[in-house]
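Tutorial handout. Part one gives the primary structure; part two gives the three-dimensional structure as tokens.
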Amino acid sequence: MFKSVGRQVCAFDLEWVPDPASGRRVYGLPQTMPDADVLDVMWAKAGATADKPRPHLKTALCRVVAVTAVIREQQPDGGIRLRLTTLPRQIDQLMDKGELISTFLSYLGQHHPQLVGFNSQTADLPILLQRGLVSGISAAEFCRRADKGWGSDYFSRHGDAHIDLKSVLSGWGIATPTLHELAAAMGIPGPVGAEPHDVVDWWVDGDLQSIVVQSQYDALSTYLVWLRAGRFAGFFSPEQYGDEEERVRAVVRDRITEGDRHLAPYLNRWDSFTTQSAPAPVIPLAPTAEAEQAA
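Part two.
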């Protein structure tokens, strides 16, 4: 379990898709080859089969298209500020891949929040590094290592600067739950729809908006799982935990009021889970004949 809760916490989610430009360079394909044909080559090289025509690609061959963060900031007066932020800022407009990664890493390097993810040590952090190199950006403050101790060193696996909830709560192996499975078991919503999503299918269909929306859902779920883990570890009293959850609800409700109607299904599903998990009313049993005689 993690050992502390930072004054600033950033629970985040990334979404990435195949990058045809990288596929052309890696496999020596002509620049004139259409993207769809390049993607077919990339999947074939990754071991595509009839049952799995679009296998996962190595992260170096993918581009990050969305990042969402739930940011919790403890104010000097002890108050808590919570916000939900997403890149791209317009959910239907693709952002330059270098600019997206540079913006997120610059924020981390400048503010040094406690970073919280799910499978982030083996997936999210590596793709940020790999694709940052591919894009040719500079992220000096983010990459700076602590001279003593662990501090805000995001590359250390022994401190609390970067908490990978999958590693902390789940471990590895066939019994390891996904974020959505773990969250749903806790009464926390996950996917956009009833079925597990496929970001690549959305990307091929040109549906960037669904990808960005899913990133927001996953960041919210990651944050709520972290809150539950914090309660389990004793960092939040039952009253504080209730306040923290209500703070998330308030942020989502405010965003819906401001026009982000796509967040309404998340809140509705969360409410339905809360209703399902509420304790059933105690109904007195009718006395038996033996009990009446004894009375």
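Part three, for discussion. Residues 278-282 have pLDDT under 50 and may be disordered. The first strand starts at residue 8 and ends at 18.
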